[in-house]
Backbone:
């Protein structure tokens, strides 16, 4: 077996490029481990001990961790429990032996990680220690003279502190001494591994406990500086640890922030000539991370803001002074997003950092310092890089400048540099105009109208292709914020003439951006463009036949975008004659020209968005093409979302995955029942993404696709019911794993829509199960809310953190309101089956959520429940006692100070009036009418006109419902004039039509 395993591993670690062979090797290895896990593991350990091939030993050390740890990647199955006690004991013993004999440090570190994660798995349950010898063995390693063994001990400890820190509660003093000794050790590797262990522990400690280890920070910063003097790579490792702490526990640095800043400043500014770029960047990033988490550290200290910005600009000017010809005129197929040089990465790093600082610290505090530095940089005479950095950084301020005069002064200040002899400075001006055109849209366009359009068009004639390309992009984004009346026929003709000259004669990046600008021009011009539309379409379609080489993929993508934008901008009768041609073109491109081996082929995103635009306007015409469109789309999506197991996927590009989901969501909605043949395959693609842990947006969008798929199957009720059962299971599983309340809201809303689209389909048993899960979800949300409320009152919590906790409370309350809507749909669709559930809510939940001490959102939640019970269950099922209590609550909350609570209660009183039996309504009428009348007299407060109008309409509508449905029980002579006086209803909707008809019968 050992030889067989070695051969399989060789196929996995060798230079074999065949993906099929590698996949077979993975499957073979998995099969052997499942058939005989004991022999498999023993053979792995033997190979790890005796193989001379470092690649094989590296693979085995990593693989052993993955198959024995509870904390490894989801795609690996932990086989520890299936091993015999003898094998388990052998693993524990041999791993420690291997640490002592392995000479390659990277492999030794992997073995240490394996021990650490396996140990954490076995120590996780503090009441059932399955490896009692582990900690004594680790402490023993620390006592050895060998540097390698001490380093391994720290590596093991890092994992144990990460996953099983509870086991060290009684070892605080030992840890402090251990950490202190490690930091004072003269060996660099010991210092680094010690700091990694400290970082792991700090990240799992409560804030109060972290203070006990704050005394280590001066030693850590001292070690950081010492290590960088001999090994900058190791200095980067230390800063990465500090950055990780800053991400999760920034307050740890509160009292020592100035010391850290001093070290970073010294490395970046005072010793900049000998400090490498990567070390400088991670240092600045660490400082920025702390500040974005605790902005008060510098918010009230302008000199720190000034110094921090100087630190950032030091990165932006640290670029080559000579401009290379490849920058001026890049090769065909060049992509700025993919192939940008390290110089631009430094500039982008600085720009992004400035954006983070302004967003977190605040524009009022940051912008004055920024203006001062930029002013000085723009005056630089002897080095263009300072002017370039200043102008590029201005691209980040558009969204933060509130005053028009300031925005105009920024643009006016940089426009003069369009005449500068240096092309990178001209480029920077156009880049900044492009970004501000997007961020400050439409304010910038309203300030400059066509004046800036003319200036940008002039730049299309620049002698440097890179500048021309950026001019086209700036023109495109500026046009997107203009109104149709801001451009006339003369300008359209001039722009068209210049753009087609670039499309025909420019290099690839010039052609691409010119087509991009053309799309914006068509969108803006609309009917004004019709005179040029046919000629443009002919020229655009020619691009597909003329530029078929790989280097023109981006150009073909831009052309798809331009044509499909035109499909939305011009009348259907003008575009329809080109519909078949663009459909066939996109089908050909997605089937024949997208490189399946290239994970970042730009054509993918353009094909997806192209189909999306076409389906929004031409879905009925596209139905006949679906058999040709859909297979290629599936193939394309499968290249983006790679299925590893039944429940797990791998995504290389999250942006492409979001586009793919967005496109599928539109297809599902637009094609409806015509999409029914593709529901099963689409389901297989989408459902694993509902639990994709690396992106909230992907989980959110995937969940939103499911109700549409249910609706697609509405012509086949049996299939639809099976689908919705499956989807509810998927969504519950996703909601139970979810940690983001906003995504959870989307998941619950998707569940609600799935049930609403299907109607009464659940058995009583299924409904009980669903009801129990709903209550559990509600209780879990309430626990999280209570935890956030508790943290808000902690002394250590500052104002910024309080805002975060308050936001979390609000999100939990929004989630609970969404749960109330889900419950309402259950009442609506399953009526009598929900009565036991309704009784539980009535006795256990309602009293808590309508208590006067809880928040407005909780009151809204409670009123939603009452409204839904009244509307969908009615008097017959609820009985007179509940009916009386519901009226008491509704008549109280219709006078609430909160407009949304008042509106919900007003709606409830109307439904209450409809569903109350005529013979008993007189006992309620005076209470209802007085409550509605008093509510109508409440003056508008700070709420928006729209919200106040909706509330008012609900009140008047409910009075109308009393007149319409309980006519004989009220004094019509008094009530009707009051009702008529408050007409018309300003926010009319379908629910009010019957009231309007009733009004008409009196006229």
Residues:
């Amino acid at each position: 077996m050992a030889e067989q395993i070695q051969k399989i591993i060789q196929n996995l670690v060798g230079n074999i490029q065949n993906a099929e062979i590698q996949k077979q090797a993975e499957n073979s290895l998995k099969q052997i481990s499942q058939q005989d896990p004991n022999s498999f593991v023993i053979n792995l350990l033997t190979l790890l001990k005796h193989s001379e091939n470092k690649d094989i030993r590296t693979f085995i050390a990593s693989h052993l961790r993955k198959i024995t740890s509870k904390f490894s990647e989801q795609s690996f199955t932990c086989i520890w429990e299936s091993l015999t006690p003898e094998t388990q004991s052998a693993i524990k013993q041999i791993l420690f032996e291997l640490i002592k004999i392995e000479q390659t440090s990277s492999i030794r570190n992997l073995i240490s990680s394996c021990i650490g994660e396996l140990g954490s798995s076995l120590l996780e349950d503090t009441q059932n220690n399955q490896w009692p010898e582990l900690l004594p063995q680790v402490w023993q390693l620390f006592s050895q003279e060998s540097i390698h063994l001490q380093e391994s001990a720290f590596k093991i400890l890092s994992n144990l502190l990460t996953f099983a820190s509870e086991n060290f509660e009684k070892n605080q003093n030992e840890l402090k001494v251990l950490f202190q000794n490690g930091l004072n050790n003269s060996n660099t590797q010991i210092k680094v591994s010690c700091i990694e262990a400290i970082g792991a522990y700090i990240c799992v400690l409560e804030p109060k406990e972290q203070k006990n280890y704050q005394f280590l920070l001066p030693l850590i910063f001292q070690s950081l500086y010492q290590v960088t003097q001999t090994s900058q790579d190791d200095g980067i490792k230390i800063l990465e640890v500090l950055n990780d702490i800053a991400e999760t526990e920034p307050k740890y640095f509160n009292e020592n922030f100035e010391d850290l800043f001093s070290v970073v400043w010294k490395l970046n500014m005072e010793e900049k000539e000998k400090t490498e770029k990567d070390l400088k960047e991670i240092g600045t990033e660490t400082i920025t991370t702390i500040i974005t988490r605790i902005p008060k550290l510098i918010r009230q200290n302008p000199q720190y803001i000034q110094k921090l910005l100087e630190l950032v600009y030091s990165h932006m000017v640290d670029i080559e002074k000579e401009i290379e010809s490849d920058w001026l005129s890049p090769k065909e197929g060049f992509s700025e997003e993919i192939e940008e040089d390290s110089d631009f990465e430094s500039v982008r790093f600085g720009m992004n950092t400035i954006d983070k600082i302004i967003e977190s610290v605040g524009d009022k505090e940051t912008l004055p310092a920024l203006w001062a530095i930029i002013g000085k940089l723009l005056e630089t005479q002897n080095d263009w890089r300072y002017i370039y950095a200043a102008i590029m950084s201005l691209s980040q301020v558009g969204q933060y400048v509130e005053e028009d005069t300031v925005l105009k002064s920024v643009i006016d200040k940089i426009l003069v540099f369009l005449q500068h002899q240096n092309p990178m400075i001209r480029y920077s001006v156009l880049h900044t105009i492009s970004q501000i055109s997007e961020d400050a849209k439409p304010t910038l366009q309203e300030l400059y109208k066509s004046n800036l359009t003319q200036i940008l068009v002039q730049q299309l004639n620049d002698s440097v292709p890179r500048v021309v390309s950026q001019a086209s992009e700036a023109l495109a984004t500026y046009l997107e914020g203009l109104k149709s009346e801001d451009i006339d026929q003369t300008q359209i003709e001039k722009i068209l003439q210049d753009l087609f000259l670039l499309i025909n004669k420019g290099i690839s990046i010039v052609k691409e951006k010119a087509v991009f600008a053309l799309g914006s021009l068509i969108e803006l011009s609309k009917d004004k463009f019709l005179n040029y539309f046919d000629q443009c379409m002919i020229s655009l379609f020619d691009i597909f036949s003329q530029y078929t080489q790989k280097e023109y993929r981006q150009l073909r993508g831009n052309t798809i975008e331009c044509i499909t934008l035109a499909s939305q901008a011009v009348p259907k009768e003008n575009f329809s004659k080109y519909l078949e041609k663009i459909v066939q073109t996109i089908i050909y491109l997605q089937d024949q020209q997208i490189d399946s081996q290239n994970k970042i082929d730009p054509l993918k995103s353009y094909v997806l968005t192209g189909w999306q635009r076409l389906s929004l306007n031409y879905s009925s015409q596209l139905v006949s093409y679906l058999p040709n469109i859909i297979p290629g789309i599936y193939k394309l999506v499968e290249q983006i979302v790679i299925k590893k197991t039944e429940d797990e996927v791998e995504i290389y590009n999250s942006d492409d995955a979001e586009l793919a989901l967005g496109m599928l969501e539109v297809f599902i909605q637009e094609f409806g029942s015509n999409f029914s043949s593709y529901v099963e395959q689409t389901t297989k693609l989408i459902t694993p993404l509902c639990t994709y842990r690396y992106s909230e947006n992907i989980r959110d969008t995937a969940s939103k696709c499911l109700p549409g798929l249910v609706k697609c199957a509405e012509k086949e009720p049996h299939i639809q019911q099976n689908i919705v059962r499956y989807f509810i299971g998927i969504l519950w599983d996703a909601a139970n794993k979810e940690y983001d309340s906003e995504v959870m809201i989307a998941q619950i809303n998707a569940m609600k829509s799935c049930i609403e689209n299907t109607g009464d389909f659940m058995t009583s048993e299924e409904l009980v199960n669903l009801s129990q899960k709903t209550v559990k979800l509600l209780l879990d949300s309430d626990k999280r809310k209570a935890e956030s409320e508790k943290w808000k009152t902690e002394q250590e919590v500052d104002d910024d953190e309080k805002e975060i906790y308050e936001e979390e409370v609000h999100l939990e309350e929004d989630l609970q309101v969404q749960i109330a809507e889900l419950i309402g749909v259950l009442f609506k669709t399953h009526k009598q089956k929900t009565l036991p559930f309704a009784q539980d809510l009535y006795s256990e939940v309602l009293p808590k959520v309508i208590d006067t001490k809880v928040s407005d959102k909780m009151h809204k939640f409670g009123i939603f429940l009452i409204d839904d019970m009244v509307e969908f269950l009615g008097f017959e099922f609820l009985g007179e006692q509940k009916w009386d209590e519901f009226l008491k609550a509704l008549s109280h909350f219709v006078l609430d100070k909160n407009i949304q609570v008042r509106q919900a209660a007003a709606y409830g009183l109307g439904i209450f009036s409809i569903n109350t039996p005529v013979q008993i309504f007189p006992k309620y009428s005076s209470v209802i009418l007085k409550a509605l009348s008093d509510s109508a007299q409440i003056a508008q407060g700070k709420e928006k006109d729209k919200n106040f109008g909706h509330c008012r309409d609900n009140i008047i509508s409910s009075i109308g419902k009393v007149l319409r449905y309980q006519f004989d029980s009220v004094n019509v002579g008094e009530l009707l004039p009051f009702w008529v006086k408050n007409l018309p209803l300003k926010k009319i909707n379908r629910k009010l039509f019957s009231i309007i008809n009733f009004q008409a019968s009196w006229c």
